[in-house]
Structures are given as structure tokens and as C-alpha cells.
């Protein structure tokens, strides 16, 4: 098993599949009256969050607690080199406290990589800047596999602000590893340069959502911040929604079996309409539940819970 | 003053000869010289070059003496084979007045290890809004001739035009940090495949090329001298080639790191590889090497940029950009160009001395010439150990790399600043 989970690229197909299979076992725990396993008793998991992200933090917290780990929440929002303790000093502090795993969310891309140089325990990237969010990709893959029965050969459209999306990067890497085909859709201003060679050859790019929809099994809508229009990525929220938002008529262009995903939090009326978000095709609430199972699997496998 | 008789040295790669240094100048050359009072140095197998001249050095004093001082930077320079360095203006306070440039100049004289030639800021506080007192700096004891807002681009085209025109009165030159600021907001590394993969905001090549294109046209229009700092892209080379063919008075520099390293280094997220302009692609490196050999790029300049440990041992986005360069530049040049001594002397000594107007530097060792020269052992190889560097900072991107060449001795006006590879003071 790998020691850290920093990027979707850290996972080969066998490891990723093992995590998804383990997550399926973990999911059965959630159905029990006592939602707890003793697997990580006596181990310490630190949630080190430099950004507000209540949903990701409580998902990791629930995952660690269900495995009986001791959980320390370290909210370091606002910390930076300029004010307060450096990342390295924080790392050394956590190290001295005996953290077995550090789950880190950070506004700077690559911060988890830096952290991994300074701690002995496992580092799990819970979202770094505009880089990656590998457990989100795992929970998305888990959700697709649960709904559609497979990943190999699926066609997945990822729609929206790919440029600033850590979810998109991790999903492209992981889905390609697991045999799915990805098409990235968005205005050209929000698709990063050289995306296909950078992440996974064979990844397609389209600027036209309507032509892509009939051929996909999954459409994943990314959160688009309205403020991006102030930096001229698109002219207005209204124009964005008209060209790239998923509404009822567009949803009906999808094949019968296709599902609609969103990593949350949603901008209803921007990238997705309430009609779509609340439809039976939407997996948005399931994704949240699956997140706990997948994060349990990740912590369990990284911390070697399987060979204890 | 001690005289030195250097025996059996190859002057800029020529057949071995003796050099007698006396009273600050090269007194005599020839085979079998005799000077009973002189200290004899056996230089068999060594090459003598005119002392190197760096057009782009950050000495950090005044303001960040924890990262570098004029003295520590001068020592690093001497050990790297330099006899003159041009100190950039982005200190604190900024070198935008006669007072500050004179202070830096005086500190350089006191250290006495290299000639420290201050560069003056183009605009007050490097703010890009109004001209600093360029004439006062030119007339000061520091005799400033190069003006640069390095670290910042003189982005306002009208201000750039005025600066280019104004310095003609005292044969000055504007050294432009070519970076269109609106195209590089928040930029962290070269915009391309690697920045996309790493999720780091891109610094597009066009942000450099667009400013160079604008400024060569401005320089042509007003008939002024223009120097381009740290050229980093293949596209910039093409713009410069075109401008030179039209007869524009433009010169350009490339750094050792842009001749050797690529943006792939960023995949470590180790900010020791963060620099501005950023490391580019292998294709850019190839184009820069060719341009340097050809002369489209005139010189190698280090952009020696010391930073304190805490400014590099952090997240990439929060780290300051810049790398050490003085103590490794000649080794990188040897690695990239091979032992083409005349070319190395041209690109690292003669031409930079000419651009900077440093008349006593950049002259090949010959009778009557000021003895600003170095002895190089090209056969030696060494492993770069950050802790052993003379700079106060440790941010070298070449840590634990094995590089060719070693500076055996450096002479400044006939006095050794480095002997047997060690700083004399």
C-alpha cells in the first residue's frame, strides 16, 4: 500500500480498486446500529484544515471516528508565512504529538507534498489549492461504480471551471487509470492549457455541452464561482448558465441511464438548476454518504489497519 | 604590493605562457619570465580569463542583511570568478536616490573583494509611477549607468519611453524586467503542461515576449540603448533576433539556471526551483543555448537572488522567487558551452563590462591591462554543497549536483581575492 495519498496519480488500477472494494465493506458499517469498527483504535488522525471546508472535514472526522481512531481537529485558517506558524513548524508539532495520519486541506497547491517531507505519518490530501482532491475522485468513482456497475468504458463529462478545479484534476487522473473516458467541457477560458498531455492522454476537450451530453454515462458539474466573471473568464453568470449550466431540457438530452454528479457545494441556478439537482438522476446526496466510506477505506489502508 | 608570477597559464585557451602581475596591472607576458621578488604560482593546466562581470546581482543590502550583505555577496562573487558585479536596486530602501547607490558603492569598496557597481531604480520605489532621480544617481560617486526596476517591469509604455530617452544624456541603459503584469497576476511557474498538472497559476511566455517586442520598438523609435534582463523563452529569442537585424541597440542576458533547468523541477513543489521569470521548457532551454552561442543573447548574468531559509522552506505559492548563482555560474557555462574559452570570456566578461561601462574590466590579460583576471581549472569537478557556499543564503538549485570547473584564483587590480580556491579575506 502507498504511504501517502497526495494525488490521483499515486493510485494504480489495482490500488484504486482495492480502496473502492474496501469502501464497499465499510459502507455496511453505516447500516449498522453501532457504526463503529475497532480497526484504528489507539491511532491518531489529525485534520489539519487551512481552509474552511466543513463538509470535507466532518466527512474525514466521521470516517476516522468510525474506525475508532483518536481525532484531532486543527483549524489553521488564516495561517501563512506572513502571520503565525509556518507549515513546517506545524508539521513538526504534529510529528511530536505522534500523528499517525495528517489529513490536510490547504489553499496552496502542493502544500501536502511539502508536509509529507516533514512528517513520518501518512499524509492525505483533502484538497490543495487548484491542484487535487484525490478522495473526492475516489468517492466519485465509487458512486459511479455503485450506480452504473462498472468504471471501465464509461464516458464521463466534467463540466465547468476545470482551470481552478482540484476535483477535475483528480477525477481525470483516477478515471483514466480505471478505464473511463473523460471529456472536459467548459468555456475555453476555464480549460487549462495542455490538459490532455498534462494529465491523461485521450482526455477530450469540448466547448459545446449540448453535443457532448447524448453520448455520456455520467455528467459531473463543477462549482463555478460567480466572481470569476470579474476576472473576465466569462461575461456574466447568466451567460455562463445559459451555455454551460445543466437545466431540465439539457438533462433530458442525456441517455436514459446517465447520472448527474456534483462535488458540492452547489451554486443552484448557476451550473445546475434545482430541477436537475433534485432529480432521481442526481447522486449528490449519495456522494456525501459514499465519501465517509471511501475515506474510511483510505485511512484504514494507509494506516495498515488490514495487517494488524 | 606583492607581485605575482603566474607560470605556464593558458590565456583564454591559448598556448601556455607566464603572466607577471605587478602594481595592479599585467606587467609582462611571455615564456620563461623572471621576477625574483614575485610570488610564483604554478598554473600548469589552468586557464586565465578576464575577471567575470555580472550584470545582475542581488546583494540584499540595505534591508535584508539576513539573506546577504554586500560583503558576503562580494565574497561569493570572488569565489565564482567575478571581479565586478552590478547590484540590483530592489533593496530596502530602494536604490532610487544618490544616497542609497553611494551607500552600496561604498560598502563594496570597503569589502574590497569585487567592484560593486550599483544599478539605480528607474522609478521611485520601483512603483512604476514616476522617474527616480536618474541624473543624480549618474552624477553620484557611484556613477550609475544601468537603471532597472528588476523584480518589477516598467510596464507603463509612456514611462518606459521617457526613461529610455532620459538616460541618453549620460549614456545610460535601461535594463528591463520583461513581464506584462496583468498577464502574470498570481503566476507561480511557466504556463504549460506542468503548471496544468500541478495546479499552479501559469506565467505565460507571451507576458515576457510582448514586453520585449514593445520595448525594442520603443528603443528603436527613440534611438536609445535597451538591455533585457533574464530572457527565458524561445519566443523572446526570435523577437531579439528580429530587433538586432533591424539595428536596434538592444542587448540581452540569460541566466545560468535558464540554460540548464526546466519547469519539470517544479513537480517537487520545492520552492528552491521557484524563480522569476520561471524555469521554462526543454525547447526554451535549447533555444536559449543556441542564442547565446550565436550572440542573439549577448551575455550570461546570474540573477543571484539570495533568500533566507524561511522564505524558501514553505509552500510554493508563499515562497519568494530567486536562486543563488554567483558561485556556480562559470561551472554551468562550462557545462553548457564546453571549454569554449573565448566565447565564455565574451559572454561573461568582455560584453557585460562593455554594457555596464566598466572600462577596467572585461579585458584579456595583456601587458598594461588592469590585472582583473581569474585562473580556472577546467578539469576539476566538484559537488555543490549548500552549506559550503559563501553566500549567507542556501537557496541553490544545484545542491549535490556534480559540476565541472573550479576557480583557483581571482585577482582584483593585481591583488588576489581568491587563492587556491579559497577567499583571501
From TrEMBL, chain A:
Pathway(s) served: Pyrimidine metabolism; UMP biosynthesis via de novo pathway; (S)-dihydroorotate from bicarbonate: step 2/3
Keywords, comma-separated and alphabetical: Pyrimidine biosynthesis, Transferase
Binding residues for carbamoyl phosphate: 55-56, 105, 133, 136, 264-265
Binding site for L-aspartate: 83, 166, 223
Entry superkingdom: Bacteria
GO molecular function, one term: aspartate carbamoyltransferase activity
Reactions mediated catalytically: carbamoyl phosphate + L-aspartate = N-carbamoyl-L-aspartate + phosphate + H(+)
Database matches in InterPro entries: Asp/Orn_carbamoyltranf_P-bd, Asp/Orn_carbamoylTrfase, Asp/Orn_carbamoylTrfase_sf, Asp_carbamoyltransf, Asp_carbamoyltransf_Asp/Orn-bd
Occurrences of domain Aspartate/ornithine carbamoyltransferase carbamoyl-P binding (ranges): 3-145
Record EC number: 2.1.3.2
Segments forming domain Aspartate/ornithine carbamoyltransferase Asp/Orn-binding: 152-302
Top-level enzyme category: transferase
Record-stated family: Belongs to the aspartate/ornithine carbamoyltransferase superfamily. ATCase family.
Quaternary structure note: Heterododecamer (2C3:3R2) of six catalytic PyrB chains organized as two trimers (C3), and six regulatory PyrI chains organized as three dimers (R2).
Function, as annotated: Catalyzes the condensation of carbamoyl phosphate and aspartate to form carbamoyl aspartate and inorganic phosphate, the committed step in the de novo pyrimidine nucleotide biosynthesis pathway.
Name the record gives this protein: Aspartate carbamoyltransferase
Organism: Micromonospora halotolerans
Amino acid at each position: 500500500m502507498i504511504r501517502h495519498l497526495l494525488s490521483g496519480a499515486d493510485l494504480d488500477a489495482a490500488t484504486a480498486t482495492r480502496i473502492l472494494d474496501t469502501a464497499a465493506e465499510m459502507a455496511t458499517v453505516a447500516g449498522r446500529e453501532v457504526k463503529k469498527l475497532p480497526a484504528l483504535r489507539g491511532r491518531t488522525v489529525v485534520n489539519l484544515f487551512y481552509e474552511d471546508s466543513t463538509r470535507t472535514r466532518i466527512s474525514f472526522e466521521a470516517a476516522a471516528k468510525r474506525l475508532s481512531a483518536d481525532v484531532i481537529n486543527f483549524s489553521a485558517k488564516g495561517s501563512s508565512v506572513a502571520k503565525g506558524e509556518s507549515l513546517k513548524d506545524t508539521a513538526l508539532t504534529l510529528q511530536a504529538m505522534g500523528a499517525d495520519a495528517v489529513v490536510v486541506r490547504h489553499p496552496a497547491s502542493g502544500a501536502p507534498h511539502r508536509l509529507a517531507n516533514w512528517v513520518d505519518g501518512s499524509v492525505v490530501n483533502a484538497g490543495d489549492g487548484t491542484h487535487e482532491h484525490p478522495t473526492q475522485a475516489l468517492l466519485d468513482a465509487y458512486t459511479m461504480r455503485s450506480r452504473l456497475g462498472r468504471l471501465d468504458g464509461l464516458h464521463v463529462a466534467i463540466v465547468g471551471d476545470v482551470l481552478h478545479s482540484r476535483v477535475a484534476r483528480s477525477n481525470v487522473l483516477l478515471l483514466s487509470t480505471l478505464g473511463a473516458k473523460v471529456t472536459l467541457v467548459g468555456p475555453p477560458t476555464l480549460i487549462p492549457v495542455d490538459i490532455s498531455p498534462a494529465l491523461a492522454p485521450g482526455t477530450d476537450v469540448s466547448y459545446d455541452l449540448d453535443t457532448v451530453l447524448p453520448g455520456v454515462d455520467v455528467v459531473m458539474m463543477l462549482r463555478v464561482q460567480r466572481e470569476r466573471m470579474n476576472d473576465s473568464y466569462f461575461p456574466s453568470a447568466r451567460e455562463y448558465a445559459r451555455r454551460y449550466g445543466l437545466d431540465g431540457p439539457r438533462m433530458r438530452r442525456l441517455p436514459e441511464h446517465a447520472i448527474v454528479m456534483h462535488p458540492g457545494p452547489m451554486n443552484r441556478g448557476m451550473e445546475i438548476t434545482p430541477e436537475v439537482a433534485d432529480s432521481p438522476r442526481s447522486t449528490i446526496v449519495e456522494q456525501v454518504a459514499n465519501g465517509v466510506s471511501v475515506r474510511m477505506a483510505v485511512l484504514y489502508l494507509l494506516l495498515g489497519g488490514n495487517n494488524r | 604590493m606583492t607581485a605575482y608570477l603566474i607560470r605556464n597559464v593558458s590565456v583564454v585557451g591559448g598556448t601556455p605562457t607566464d603572466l607577471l602581475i605587478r602594481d595592479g596591472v599585467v606587467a609582462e607576458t611571455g615564456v620563461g619570465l623572471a621576477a625574483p621578488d614575485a610570488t610564483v604560482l604554478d598554473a600548469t593546466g589552468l586557464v586565465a580569463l578576464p575577471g567575470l562581470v555580472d550584470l545582475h546581482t542581488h546583494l540584499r543590502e540595505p534591508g535584508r542583511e539576513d539573506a546577504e550583505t554586500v560583503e558576503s555577496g562580494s565574497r561569493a562573487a570572488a569565489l565564482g570568478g567575478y571581479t565586478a558585479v552590478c547590484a540590483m536596486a530592489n533593496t530596502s530602501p530602494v536604490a532610487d536616490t544618490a544616497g542609497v547607490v553611494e551607500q552600496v558603492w561604498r560598502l563594496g569598496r570597503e569589502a574590497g573583494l569585487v567592484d560593486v557597481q550599483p544599478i539605480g531604480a528607474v522609478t521611485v520605489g520601483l512603483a512604476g509611477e514616476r522617474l527616480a532621480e536618474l541624473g543624480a544617481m549618474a552624477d553620484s560617486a557611484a556613477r550609475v549607468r544601468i537603471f532597472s526596476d528588476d523584480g518589477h517591469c516598467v510596464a507603463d509604455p509612456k514611462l518606459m519611453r521617457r526613461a529610455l530617452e532620459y538616460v541618453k544624456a549620460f549614456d545610460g541603459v535601461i535594463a528591463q524586467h520583461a513581464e506584462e503584469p496583468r498577464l502574470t497576476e498570481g503566476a507561480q511557474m511557466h504556463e504549460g503542461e506542468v503548471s496544468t498538472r500541478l495546479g499552479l497559476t501559469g506565467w505565460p511566455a507571451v507576458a515576457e515576449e510582448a514586453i520585449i517586442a514593445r520595448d525594442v520598438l520603443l528603443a528603436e523609435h527613440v534611438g536609445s540603448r535597451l538591455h533585457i534582463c533574464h530572457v527565458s523563452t524561445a519566443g523572446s529569442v526570435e523577437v531579439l533576433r528580429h530587433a538586432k537585424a533591424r539595428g536596434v541597440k538592444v542587448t540581452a542576458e540569460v541566466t545560468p539556471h535558464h540554460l540548464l533547468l526546466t519547469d519539470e523541477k517544479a513537480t517537487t513543489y520545492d520552492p528552491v526551483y521557484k524563480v522569476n521569470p520561471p524555469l521554462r521548457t526543454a525547447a526554451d532551454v535549447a533555444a536559449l543555448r543556441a542564442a547565446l552561442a550565436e550572440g542573439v543573447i549577448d551575455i550570461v548574468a546570474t540573477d543571484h537572488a539570495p533568500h533566507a531559509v524561511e522564505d524558501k522552506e514553505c509552500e510554493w505559492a508563499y515562497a519568494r522567487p530567486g536562486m543563488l548563482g554567483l558561485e556556480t555560474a562559470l561551472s554551468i557555462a562550462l557545462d553548457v558551452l564546453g571549454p569554449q574559452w573565448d566565447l565564455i570570456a565574451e559572454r561573461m566578461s568582455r560584453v557585460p563590462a562593455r554594457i555596464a561601462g566598466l572600462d577596467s574590466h572585461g579585458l584579456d590579460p595583456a601587458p598594461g591591462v588592469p590585472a582583473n583576471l581569474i585562473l580556472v581549472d577546467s578539469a576539476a569537478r566538484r559537488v555543490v554543497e549548500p552549506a559550503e557556499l559563501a553566500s549567507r543564503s542556501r537557496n541553490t538549485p544545484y545542491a549535490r549536483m556534480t559540476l565541472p570547473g573550479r576557480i583557483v584564483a581571482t585577482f582584483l587590480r593585481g591583488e588576489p581575492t581568491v587563492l587556491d580556491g579559497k577567499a583571501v579575506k
